[in-house]
Automatic annotation (TrEMBL), chain A:
Keywords from the UniProt entry: ATP-binding, Cell membrane, Membrane, Nucleotide-binding, Transport
Database matches in Pfam families: ABC_tran, oligo_HPY
Protein species of origin: Actinomadura livida
Any one GO cellular component localisation term in the record: plasma membrane
Name of protein: ABC transporter ATP-binding protein
Database matches in Gene3D superfamilies: P-loop containing nucleotide triphosphate hydrolases
Automatic annotation (TrEMBL), chain B:
Disordered: region residues: 1-24
Molecular function in Gene Ontology: ATP binding; ATP hydrolysis activity
Domain ABC transporter, first and last residues per copy: 31-281
Pfam families: ABC_tran, oligo_HPY
Record-linked Gene3D superfamilies: P-loop containing nucleotide triphosphate hydrolases
CDD domains in the record: ABC_NikE_OppD_transporters (cd03257)
TM spans (from-to): none
Protein name in UniProt: Peptide/nickel transport system ATP-binding protein/oligopeptide transport system ATP-binding protein
InterPro entries attached to this UniProt entry: AAA+_ATPase (IPR003593), ABC_transp_ATP-bind (IPR050319), ABC_transporter-like_ATP-bd (IPR003439), ABC_transporter-like_CS (IPR017871), Oligopep_ABC_C (IPR013563), P-loop_NTPase (IPR027417)
Domain of life: Bacteria
Matches recorded under SMART domains: AAA
Similarity comment: family membership: Belongs to the ABC transporter superfamily.
TrEMBL record, chain C:
Domain ABC transmembrane type-1: 103-313
The family this protein is said to belong to: Belongs to the binding-protein-dependent transport system permease family.
Listed InterPro entries: BPD_transp_1_N, MetI-like, MetI-like_sf
CDD domains membership: TM_PBP2 (cd06261)
Protein's organism: Actinomadura livida
Listed transmembrane segments: 107-130, 142-166, 186-208, 248-270, 290-316
Protein name (Swiss-Prot/TrEMBL): Peptide/nickel transport system permease protein
Keywords linked to the UniProt accession: Cell membrane, Membrane, Transmembrane, Transmembrane helix, Transport
Any Gene Ontology biological process: transmembrane transport
Record carries keyword RNA-binding: no
Amino acid sequence: MTGTAPAADTAGTGEAPTAFLEVRDLKIHFPTDDGLVKSVDGLSFQLERGRTLGIVGESGSGKSVTSLGILGLHNKRNANVSGEIWLDGKELVGASQSEVRRLRGRDMAMIFQDPLSSMHPFYTVGQQIIEAYRVHNDVSKQVARKHAIDMLGKVGIPRPDQRVDDYPHQFSGGMRQRAMIAMALSCDPELLIADEPTTALDVTVQAQILDLIRDLQQEFNSAVIMITHDLGVVAELADDILVMYAGRAVEQASVDATFHRPLHPYTWGLLGSMPRLDRDRSERLLPITGSPPSLINVPSGCAFHPRCPYRDLNEGKSETKRPELVEVEPGHKAACHLPLGRRREIWTDEIRPKL
Amino acid sequence: MSTSKTPAEKVSVDKAPAGEPRPIREGENLLEVENLGKHFPVTAGLLRRQVAAVKAVDGVSFSVRKGETLGLVGESGCGKSTTGRMIMRLLDPSFGKITFEGQDITKMSQRRLRPLRRDLQMIFQDPYSSLNPRKTVGAIVGAPFRLQNLEAEQGVKKAVQEILELVGLNPEHYNRYPHEFSGGQRQRIGIARTLALKPKLIIADEPVSALDVSVQAQVVNLLEDLQDELDLTYVVIAHDLSVVRHISDRVAVMYLGKIVELADRTDLYERPMHPYTNALLSAVPIPDPAQRGERKRIRLQGDVPSPLDPPPACRFHTRCWKAQDICKQVEPPLVELSPGHQAACHFPENTTVSATDAVAKAAVAPGAAAAGDAGSASAADSAE
Amino acid sequence: MLLLVSLVTFGIFFWLPKLAGQTTDQIAAGYVGKAPTQQAIEDTKERLGLDDPVVVQYADYLKAIIVGKDFKAGPVTDHCPAPCLGYSYRSSQPVLETLLDRAPATLSLAVGAAVIWLVGGITVGVISALRRGTLWDRMAMIVALSGVSLPIYFTGLVSLALFSYSIPIFPGGGSYTSITENPVQWFQALVLPWVTLAFLYAAMYARLTRAGMLETMNEDYIRTARAKGLPEKTVVTKHALRASLTPIMTVFGLDLGLLLGGAVLTESTFGIPGLGRLAIDSIRSGDLPMVLGVTLITSTSIVVINLIVDLLYAIVDPRVRLA
């Protein structure tokens, strides 16, 4: 043995990484009466300031649990968490609850899917932003209120000095999501996690909110994790993309590589499933057969094999051996048993022409 | 008392105004909707006085040809779902007329509607809540047979199993309960239920929006296959413009209770005339990072106004970048600006004529007496 | 709402004597006292208007409340100023005076118990919800269940036996003293009744609070509050508890209103001279005006307290204000 470990094997060493955010072999399991739910089962990724990571997956892929896990918001009573989460040199999985709590809202913040149910109905929008600001900043109510008005103005709410005293139900859907963003950004966090931030919104409002997130990211230079099921959203916003399936990453690459040279059959399936406005209308969509698996009963071997059209090309490995996420090209990782050359062939010859 | 009438009298009384349903051939209008509207009263105070009305749908007209798919798109609150429910007669229209197979069903009694319910079916958005959790799949899909007192040829069970197979479900799952199925499979059960009685028209209200992307595509393909196989006509209501383009032959775009544009799929998506359609299309995120920053971007300001108090004249003028004074004063009518392409706009794009010009022309052509000078005056008149 | 009160009253006015199977003669005879002469009975009927139709009697009664009433007793005329609820058939005391005399005892009992059960019940409920499934939660809910199911006269007598007769910490039954007379004694005498009465309600409120909290803690806005980095204490008290309290407020309004009309069982068990005992005694002796008076107080307090609750609701939940 030469004694030098490859760079990819730093996981589990407990050493502080150089990346701003680094997640190493994160596992979040929930024991239930029906069995162990492996919501996140060995996930690793890195993210730098000023960059946007898009996490894409279907329901039950573990993408939302991952984000809640980073913030320490998962249900702690019944979750088993292992692995490491490093934020700016601090490890979060082993940190005390009060330490993580102090980081929440100040260094890392989150925007949720449904802005109506995510805001407290009994407090004004202003009160809720002021509260978020004052937890982490020792300022008077007047100062905090002024800051809240500034933030509301910054996210594009007209007449913020008046709207600050409105209740969430007096805002429209788009305005509420803007207010949520104002609240999340009130302490100038370096990491912003947006969990399906536009799914509940109309398409014209979605476009506004995506623009807003992009502009604010440039202004604050924060790291953004964008969680969504919509490939269109990440194509517009993300620098890198992580495709999740059954609690694990199956492909991880730059946004260009993901859309133009994807190397995992699941990613192909996602691309073929969506009707596209930027192409001539195809006669038929190319769906993935079957449904996403139950996280209690994850299929053996490659979790995607029951739905994979190419599973028979791997001499039985698909059913028995779990493929590891390995770097197939610089900065491009995929977890698939298919030989790389064969995958490139399938993509260029069979998949791309039909998209 | 209605029971005092003889059956013969009753039939003659009921049938006279509506007219017999007549067989509709391929390409003819199966469904016609004229100036249909629904205003929900808003009441206040002890006496429940009506203080305002939510103009959910405010006069829409369109027709659906047999065998085609009409897409109804728009943002929340545009009235697309209300329109669908009125066609199903799940809601009573405030005004307007619905003609199905040549028969006026606008005011038909629920009793007389029952036989029509075989021909008119609806698919709902939420496959979780629209299936009774305590009934087996067999009972759910077989229910329409019992409701209509129909005897299937080889028994209901056999018929149900055939339908299950048709929608891609295992016929042996006849005795299972909805919770044993995934979201996509539940939507298939919902579709199977609507197909049980071989309907002619299916209204699908957001049929795939609650489903995962990969499963959405399965259901979209299924709907298309069934259309070919069973000669179905669809009205698909959805907010997802990509899905609507894929599935529809013609598309109507709604905004605040009105149709603002109605055209063939290709026309609408490639040469949209109404600025709102344009803005909608430009807002859809495109799954291609290479096009980032390349596309023409139109960003509308603010949200859709409340249908309680819609803007006067052209309802889009508050968010429209092309709006001028006339848009705030005169409502542009929905008129045909090129063959098969209707739009309601004073300043349409991708065309040389405007709505007002077209109306002026239309007014000149048939009217020998009324239409004299085709100026601003006649445009204003006809716009009312 | 006043309409409601008067209707309730009217119903009882009309039905009570009939249900008791009494004729007007018997009522009047009871009123006159020992060895009634026929003349005295007729006079009394005349004076009280007992032979008038029910509607007229009811109208008289309402009129008396609003403008007062003169009672002619031979040559003497008693003026009963508004709001006049009449005179007791038994003691000939004005009803209003008796009610006012008895009300403080009931008020002390009800308000004191309410404070204890609100604080106790909600605290136990919140802790149970936060420690769902733990030993504490199970024990608390078993105690709560027993609290709901054990009748007052049982818990009341047991507590009297334990803390008054076996270990004489608190005075026994019938030792109620007015607060103006002797606050210390007032307090001592009420401790056991308060705790006994509060136990029943606290148990109910603990279960209500627990259920409400469990639901609220799963709301998205609780997740948001945590995501802001708020300390768990703030999340629970400021965000979760406030939202769970609204349904409890509604129930509380009803409960307190009912209690203000007299906690019959508690007052009887502990010998407190409150409205509840007055009602029991009056019903037993067929003292119609007194029964009516207590009923009126009960219905009024329920209506008034619910009005207050509705107003509070609008303050607590801004969404209600628009409706």
